[in-house]
Design brief:
Layout (H helix, E strand, L loop, with lengths): L6 H24 L3 H20 L10
Length: about 60
Amino acid sequence: MTKIINLRQARKQRARDDKRASGDANAAKFGEAKPLRDARQAEADRSARIHDAHRLDGRRDDD
């Protein structure tokens, strides 16, 4: 015997699956979440400040 399906529910589920696949593709394409990106940037800024603080002449390379 065949399984009876509700076509409306099947259509909505297929739309949800397509939307999730699209979202996953965008997540992979555009990278990490904003809190992680902000934390990585803050750590890079902190590292640069510490490195600059240990310079003997007090100048930066871009000056």
